[in-house]
Design goal:
This protein is of the alpha/beta class. It folds into two domains: 6-45 and 292-400, Aspartate Aminotransferase, domain 1, CATH 3.90.1150; 47-286, Type I PLP-dependent aspartate aminotransferase-like (Major domain) (Aspartate Aminotransferase, domain 2, 3-Layer(aba) Sandwich), CATH 3.40.640. The chain has 13 helices and 14 strands. Helix 1 (11-27) packs antiparallel against helix 6 and helix 2 (47-57) packs across helix 10 (275-286). The radius of gyration is 21 Å and the shape is globular. The mean pLDDT is 95. The chain binds pyridoxal-5'-phosphate (PLP). Pyridoxal-5'-phosphate binds next to helix 5.
Length: 401
């Protein structure tokens, strides 16, 4: 008989765990076409570039020792300089390398923020729907996730303000650009307003922005962090979608006082990230590969997005609604006719060999919300397979109706 920690025994944790397990089992079956996970395209991984970079790194005069030895907790200095100058400054975020820490991906940033701030019972406002993996992290720290409504332009600010007054949350967790799971983007005015609310009510906005660079139509928007005047916005970003998810690299940008605590939490967790990953990533940017690479991957995703949009319009039943993302990897589809997508998923896997994620799991309070919805990720499926699989699934749904 094992006596696991109390944090594992909540009903919310169990529910979220089941959703995540289902998600990963659908992703790992190679005989299925999966629109389930948020993986980048394999064609978008810079394999050949890294072959060249790593050979140079591991030559005697290269950076091999740095890559293989213990290193600084906050991460390689040159990688943090690249983040400040190449990734943040052009987006209107003026900061110093002391305010940036490398993390083992966006998920570790969420974990560290919870370690630093969350007591059991603290409230975190989350988008409704939201990214289920982060919900699981918040629940692991026994936070209460309170959903906040969104419309086509993201979180509705009047509702955010109401909920701040009602619940006094520790964080407002938002994915402002090409949101997971909906693909919706928070408008510029609302980004500014959110930073103002964080200041007025002294609450932290946790801005999770891993998709922002993968934009292939529309105009770039400034991060919420760029409007932050008092240090109440903490920005988490990731190299998973623009470089490599397997390298497990991300970064967090925060005010000095918060950074000092994040530093201690990181030290107490794993001391620092993989220096091999950090060195390879730093060289990738320093040697100027990123702009061309980004152009290439945006082209891949634009074609896949277009194929997905055209196929949904052509083959799904009349009355289907879907978002039209300007970037990122996801679209959110709502079906007509009372179809339950959790049941549909089981049928689709059996009869069509096509997987997606049913919508219900993305809503923290359940109540049947999202029961007609599905998250479709087009990032990791080639154009011709998108067309044929969406046709197969669409035909199946039409026949069902
Ligand atoms: C909104 C969001 N945040 C964080 C992550 C996790 O990213 P990472 O691979 O950097 O841990 C993802 C990955 O899909 C995501 O969609």
């Amino acid at each position: 008989m094992y006596h696991f920690a109390d944090r594992w025994s909540t009903e919310a944790m169990e529910k979220t765990g089941v959703i995540l397990n289902n998600l990963f089992s659908a992703m790992s079956d190679p005989t299925l076409v999966s629109f389930g996970g948020g993986s980048p395209a394999k064609e978008a991984l810079p394999v050949e570039i890294l072959q060249r970079i790593s050979q140079a790194v591991f030559r005697r005069e290269g950076r091999g020792v740095e890559a293989l030895a213990y290193g600084q907790t906050q991460g390689l200095t040159d990688l943090r300089e690249i983040i400040v100058t190449q990734l943040l400054a052009p987006k209107g975020v003026q900061t110093k390398i002391e305010n940036v820490m490398i993390t083992a991906g966006g998920l570790e940033s969420m974990n560290l923020m919870c370690q630093v701030f969350i007591n059991p019972g603290d409230v975190i406002l989350v988008e409704d729907p939201t990214f289920v993996h982060c919900t699981m992290i918040f629940q692991m720290f026994k936070a209460k996730c309170v959903p906040c409504p969104m419309d086509d332009h993201g979180l509705v600010m009047e509702e955010v303000e109401e909920k701040i007054k009602q619940y006094h949350p520790k964080f407002i967790y938002t994915i402002p650009t090409f949101q997971n799971p909906t693909g919706i983007t928070l408008s510029q005015e609302r980004r500014q307003k959110l930073a103002e609310l964080a200041e007025t009510y002294d609450v932290i906005v946790l801005e999770d922005d891993p998709y922002r660079d993968i934009r292939y139509s529309g105009h770039d928007l400034l991060p919420v962090k760029s409007f932050d005047r008092v240090g109440n916005v903490v920005l988490a970003n990731s190299f998973s979608k623009i470089f490599s998810p397997g390298s497990r690299l991300g970064y967090i940008v925060a005010d000095e006082q918060i950074m000092a605590k994040l530093f201690d939490a990181k030290m107490a967790t794993n001391s620092h990230c993989s220096k091999i990953s950090e060195v390879l990533c730093a060289e990738f940017f320093k040697q100027g590969y990123y702009p061309e690479h980004l152009k290439k991957i945006c082209q891949i995703y634009r074609e896949r997005r277009d194929a997905m949009m055209e196929s949904l319009d052509a083959y799904f039943p009349a009355g289907t609604k879907h978002t039209y993302p300007d970037g990122g990897l996801f679209t959110w589809v709502e079906l007509p006719g009372g179809i339950n997508t959790t049941e549909l998923l089981a049928e689709s896997v059996r009869h069509c060999r096509v997987a997606f994620i049913a919508g219900e799991g993305f809503f923290v309070e359940g109540n049947g919300k999202g029961s007609n919805a599905m998250r479709m990720s087009f990032g990791n499926v080639p154009v011709d397979v998108i067309r044929s699989s969406i046709k197969t699934l669409g035909d199946y749904i039409c026949a069902k109706l």
